[in-house]
Automatic annotation (TrEMBL):
GO MF term list: 3-hydroxybutyrate dehydrogenase activity
Taxonomic classification: Bacteria, Pseudomonadati, Pseudomonadota, Betaproteobacteria, Burkholderiales
SUPFAM superfamilies reported in the protein's UniProt record: NAD(P)-binding Rossmann-fold domains
Biological process terms in GO annotation: monocarboxylic acid metabolic process
Descriptive protein name: 3-hydroxybutyrate dehydrogenase
């Protein structure tokens, strides 16, 4: 379905971004990976997912907190594949602390990586999509783009912000072949959330499994983690012809979290 298209997925060396990159590669899209840590493992996984379609995979290590790096990432993606057709703004970090104790540098980093990076990638990728007459921008927000939780002032502010950016981008492109939507996961068991499971295990003196149950029980009625594979399939739907008139939504996949 996505043969000949190029998808840039930020923060795709791990977790949700990697799951989305694999799902898009399975549909035939060439992939630009981005993120920190091991690159060879994720690259091999994406190549394998796209092997039947003969997809190509490139990597750029831009720090999504730095606008100059982001400009370089977009230039590199265009040099590699001609154009960015699908932009998945996924890179994100978390820090938990009460608002009056929240470290200022953590606030700045979370706003830069989780929110401003999506503004920069969007402003740089959109002109090419508009001139091609087709494009998909998928912002990985969070259920925290819809509701708040204690200790997460920067994260919740950034995620509400990216839902707002999604709506404005969708409105400005509403009469074109470019769509912009947000995906709002509940708990997904990635390294980002494992840190919060570890903190619960320590706080309550319980096992990893029990800490997972406590975490889910506080927020997620299904008592199940959403998976990167499920989120990948949602991204594929948004890229499909059937998703062509889905515009400006914040689509939660959260086990009922925001329904409460
Ligand atoms: P993760 O820690 O597994 O992956 C984060 C990815 O972002 C990694 O590839 C990491 O290298 C990359 N990254 C971090 N800082 C970066 C930077 N400055 N520049 C470039 N890349 C950077 O986390 P995840 O859980 O897969 O989270 C991915 C996105 O999903 C985030 O935006 C997060 O807020 C969102 N999300 C996660 C959950 C969850 O429960 N895990 C729920 C809702 C939303």
């Amino acid at each position: 379905m996505l043969n000949g298209k190029t998808a840039l997925v930020t923060g795709s060396t791990s977790g949700i971004g990697l799951g989305i990159a694999k799902a898009l590669a399975r549909q035939g899209a060439n992939i630009v990976l981005n993120g920190f840590g091991d690159v060879d493992g994720p690259r091999a996984e994406v190549l394998e997912a796209g092997a039947q379609a003969g997809v190509r995979v490139a990597y750029h290590g831009a720090d999504m907190g730095r606008p100059a790096d982001i400009e370089d990432l977009l230039r590199y993606s265009t040099d590699q594949f001609g154009r960015v057709d699908i932009l998945v703004n996924n890179a994100g970090i978390q820090h938990v602390a009460p608002v009056h104790e929240f470290p200022v540098e953590k606030w700045d980093a979370i706003l830069a990586i989780n929110l401003s990076s999506a503004f920069h990638t969007t402003r740089l990728a959109l002109p090419g999509m508009l001139s091609a007459g087709w494009g998909r921008i998928i912002n990985v927000a969070s259920v925290h783009g819809l509701v708040g939780s204690t200790q997460k002032s920067a994260y919740v502010a950034a995620k509400h912000g990216i839902v707002g950016l999604t709506k404005v981008t969708a409105l400005e492109t509403a009469t074109t072949g470019v769509t912009c939507n947000a995906i709002c996961p509940g708990w997904v068991l990635t390294p980002l959330v494992q840190k919060q499971v570890d903190a619960k295990a320590e706080q309550h003196g319980v096992s990893n499994e029990e800490a997972q149950r406590i975490l889910l029980g506080e927020k997620e009625p299904s008592m199940q983690f959403t998976t990167p594979e499920e989120l990948g399939e949602l991204a594929v739907f948004l890229c499909s012809p059937a998703g062509g008139n889905v515009r400006g939504v914040a689509w939660n996949m959260d086990g009922g979290w925001a329904a409460q």
